[in-house]
Amino acid sequence: MLKLNLSRLALGAGLAFAAASSVAANYQLTRVDVAGAQWVALTDINNRNWAVGNYVMSDADYGHAFIYANGATQLLSGPSGAIGSTAFGISDSGAVVGSFTTGSSTDPEGGIIFASTQGFIYAGGQYQVVNVAGASETYLRGISPDGRYVSGYATFNNRSRGFALDLVGGGLTLLGPSNGYTVAQGINANGVIVGDAREFTGPGTSTSTRTSFSYDLATGQSTDANIAGVTRTAFRDISVDGTIAGLYTDTLGTHGFMGSTTSYQTFDFGSSDLTILEGINDARWLVGSANDANGQGFGVLLAPVPEPATWVLMAAGGTLLGIRRRR
Questions:
Q1: Are strands 253-259 and 264-269 parallel, antiparallel or unpaired?
Q2: Pairwise CA distance, residues 265 & 257, whole Å
Q3: Predicted pLDDT of residue 293
Q4: Distances from the Cα of 119 to the Cαs of 84, 96, 132, 161, 189, in angstroms?
């Protein structure tokens, strides 16, 4: 049985986020650790405040996926034959999407080479393997709240395309440029997907452009957007009201953010130069990961204060969080 070590700290930043409906910017941070793990991350949270995440024990470890719901943790070992798994999305009914591999080998320098990655959907206690036709690898990264759509990216000729798969209608929509790398991840209840793309514009990989995007499955409209003055913006999830969670990189490091590219809050953890927000639900609970001052990767759960009574957390100290508002 997997045991998560949780430590909680109430945060009173006294800030307000300006949006269609105002929300207090006070958050309670819960740090999530796994004993002996090199790295831990929470990657999505649904509207029942159930979270999914992953942890890695060493550089030779593909990963271990888990669900954290109602104070209990369930390890997801992946489909039959899997030697490792990762989870990145959870629907409101508890269906989980992620990826797995079935083997590994060692290169001449002693490095680990994992076998091709495949996607999975875990629902009702059963695994369904998902592979995009013609792709050498498939990574599932998101699922809509109602479970109809799944998103991710697939590898074609050493390049990746984002995609959305309609589990009801059966349609597959490819996203992003064919000459680059695209990650499609969060999907909200309105059928809007967010992600980021890198397109190679010169010979080989010498020149490229980066952008984050949203894609409306109903209209087919794609919209690019980036935070001004930073080197990279990456959208990772979107709530029903259009609030985005993700990350951006500047000269100081990588920071989590919530909001839009023109009005957002930055989340930094203590002295860490790496903070990532991966998931947001419609009540604006947030999940992600960060490195502490010792380089230890830990999972991040941020609950709005006052917190709903539906989530019971353990209190035992914590770490510091800085929140900055940008407009």
A1: antiparallel
A2: 5
A3: 83
A4: 12, 11, 9, 14, 22
Diameter over CA atoms, the chain: 57
Q: Tell me the backbone φ, ψ of residue 63, rounded to 5 degrees.
A: 140, 165
User: pLDDT tens across 141-170, in order?
Assistant: 999 999 999 999 999 999 999 999 999 999
Q: Which amino acid is at 146?
A: D
**Amino acid occupying residue 123:** A
User: CA 48 to CA 301: how far, in whole Å?
Assistant: 14
Could you tell me how many residues make up the chain?
327
Distance CA 238, CA 220 (A): 17
Q: State yes or no: pLDDT of 309 exceeds 50.
A: no
Q: Residues 42-60: pLDDT tens digits?
A: 999 999 999 999 999 988 8
Instruction: Look at the block and give the residue holding tokens 């989590």.
Output: 256
Q: Which residue has the tokens 């019971």?
A: 312
Q: Which residue has the tokens 């001004």?
A: 228
Q: For residue 180, report the phi and psi dihedrals to the nearest 5 degrees.
A: 175, -155
Structure tokens at 204: 């080989």
Residue 294 CA to residue 297 CA, distance in Å, equals 9
Say if residue 283 is exposed, middle or buried (CB neighbours under 10 Å; 0-12, 13-18, 19+). Answer: middle
Q: Which two tokens stand for residue 269?
A: 């953890």
In angstroms, how far is CA 305 from the centroid of its own chain? 22
